[in-house]
UniProtKB/TrEMBL annotation, chain B:
<protein>
    <submittedName>
        <fullName>Ribose ABC transporter substrate-binding protein RbsB</fullName>
    </submittedName>
</protein>
<keyword id="KW-0732">Signal</keyword>
<feature type="signal peptide">
    <location>
        <begin position="1"/>
        <end position="20"/>
    </location>
</feature>
<dbReference type="InterPro" id="IPR028082">
    <property type="entry name" value="Peripla_BP_I"/>
</dbReference>
<comment type="similarity">
    <text>Belongs to the bacterial solute-binding protein 2 family.</text>
</comment>
<dbReference type="Pfam" id="PF13407">
    <property type="entry name" value="Peripla_BP_4"/>
</dbReference>
<dbReference type="GO" id="GO:0030313">
    <property type="term" value="C:cell envelope"/>
</dbReference>
<feature type="domain" description="Periplasmic binding protein">
    <location>
        <begin position="30"/>
        <end position="283"/>
    </location>
</feature>
<dbReference type="InterPro" id="IPR025997">
    <property type="entry name" value="SBP_2_dom"/>
</dbReference>
<dbReference type="GO" id="GO:0030246">
    <property type="term" value="F:carbohydrate binding"/>
</dbReference>
Amino acid sequence: MAQPDVKAVGEAPARPAPAPVRLNLQRFGLTIAFVTLVAALALLSPAFLTAENLLNVARQVSINAIIAAGMTFVILTAGIDLSVGSLLALAGAIMAGALKGGVPLALSLLAGLAAGTGFGVVNGLAVANGRVAPFIVTLAMLTIARGATLVYTGGRPISDLGPAFDWLGGGDLGGIPVPVIIMVLVFAAAYVMLTQMIVGRYIYAIGGNAEAARLSGVNVGRTTVLVYALSGLLSAVAAVILTARLDSAQPTAGLGYELDAIAAVVLGGTTLMGGEGGIGGTLLGAFLIGVLNNGLNLLNVSSFYQQVVKGLVILLAVLVDQRLRRRGGRRRAA
Amino acid sequence: MRGTWIAAMLAAGLIGAAAAGGPAAGRPTVGLAISTLNNPFFVDLRDGAQAAAAKAGVTLVVLDAQNDPARQASSIEDLIAKKAGVVIINPTDSDAIVPTVKKLNAAKIPVITVDRAANGGTVAAHIASDNVAGGVMAADYVGRRLAGRGNVVMLEGIPGSSAARDRGQGFRQGLKKYPGIRLVASQTADFDRAKGLAVMENILQAQKKIDAVFAQNDEMALGAVQAIEAARRNRVMFVVGFDAIADALKAIREGKMAATIAQQPKEMGRLAVEAAATVLKGGAVPRFTPVPLRLVTK
């Protein structure tokens, strides 16, 4: 599995490897699962397939999708970032606290984004230089950042943040919700980074085989710090949206968000082993989860059954995906 | 840091004062072990208990565990050594308190729990809010305000939790009195504000006519308020929460929320001390005493 990636690294400075057809085949299965789910919900609920509801779903999905975009970078390097939910809470609290303290909006946002990025850099340095497993580093950061948030807020929400800030969560541009626009920009940038830029090849190479990547001249340390910094930054971007949507920074915000983000990434076909996958699948994975939550609410499914149904649909989607991928693999070989 | 230090000093001072003043006065001593005084709810509980203790003629020793089960256990051991007459416990954790309750049982000191129960040992009385009655109260408010007709949505707490179960049961039970009211959707949002927002957004898509929303806690109610305002449907429906947290009381004053159900911690403290005084005299007390709740509106 690692072989082609290592070769790609050697060639990378000369020309970016062509976008592999394989990726499309991989995503095929999830696409089928997604389309089937959408069709089923459209049949079952008249409220589902309306422009209003689809924009509503996109707005709700934006938070998990943006976090999952950062998580995709990390997982592609065979890492994991469990601290995203806590970093979201901390960044949100810092922004809200600054705003309430009279700091101008732009500077408050910047402070929150800087905090997310800064804590991400610490994650990256500990993983790259400390040679500690990413799971442990980011698990520690999960508690540190959550604790810092509780200390900073005194355990109380920071509310009433003003219309200018709230527009970032609830406003729209030409009918398109602002959070959706931010999500599209994030994914466009992530796509360009991963497919068109050398750093993207480095990220795949590290996940394929870090030692081989190092030997072929990739600065593994710097790239590792970069992916965790991006994950922290995108958690803070998600914090902007969530805090603005609630008009309140909650000390308990983002609890468990790391699992939703990891689920979106893995559903999207990126393997936890690293080196394989992509950002487009992550978007589709996040939408699958979001559409499922929306559909279950629209159909008023009892809360006990909901958890069972959610698990079953995700399992089914992965199974369909795996099956088609194996078939695709055979066809390719033939 | 400073808060902890001050609290430790206070606790030490209180124990000292009790040790000095208690025996001298010749009055029976009742211990009150509180999970944390860093929360206005429990401060009110203590105030209610102290007022009742003065009336009942017992010496009250208040211990603040600062949410630390180990600290709570060791401070109650001190009470055993001092031969307190009754110990009232507001456990930091229902499981962690069990060994301590058993120690009190062994020392033949009666135990009363308040707000949170103990999951083992022998407890003479448990005093806590009646969540079922709170749910009924919310249903009555909704029913009367809608004059018995309309569509209602419920946002549920964490599935399987006792608060969600009891509040939901009470609300459904209370709505039976109003056959013209339909519960058109009942969905969980895990007692969380962000989930309350998302789930309410989805329900607003599915239900074109909603007259009232009951959320099983204020966090979800406040999330629902955001969703309803964003959908510009806040004039046609009202929201009722539960718990009376600060943000919700503010939302009620501003007219964004209609009502919430408040617990009465002072009552809790009073009832606990009264039960302790009865036990001291050798009287019988009910195993469970529900503390009435209060409807808060503008």
